[in-house]
Amino acid sequence: MLGRPKDDWNAEGQRLADAGILAIAIDLPALSDPGDAKVLSGWSADVHAAVTYLASRPDVRPGSIGIVGASLGATLAALAAAADPAVRALVLVSPAQEYRGVRIDGAMKDYGGRPALLIASTHDPYAARTVRDLAKDAPGRRDTRFSEATAHGTILLARDPDVARALVDWLQATLPR
Asked: Which of 86, 95, 161, 174 is the most buried (most CB within 10 A)?
């Protein structure tokens, strides 16, 4: 999330590790919005670099890479996943259809039939609407999960342990072992 550290993912990272899923969390390139949509969308290169790094590790099975992102991180995750066929699963927490000129609908179309889990709070109207829109008429599997917790992004995962567990369970069921 913009303005939040990768440490927000520690609890979820531990849940993934406990489930036998190797994970890496990255910080965004800056703490504030660069004010330029092209620069902002370019930040997805950092997500792609993390995927490339994981794919190069001998302890990572080919074909079993997923990306999880929250808020702006969800936008960047969608852009990176769309551009990389090695990504086999995508989880978007509190996604935005459009953020400061960067849209994800085209990226999700390019992502194609690969599975995605879309998560939002019912108290986060824009993210909830984005989840419904992305799931509607999708070319592939789009699972949705809504929470009653009043939260956005990584805060949602911290406030709703059922959603946090569902994310891990979904990745376990979706990624090849």
From this structure: 95
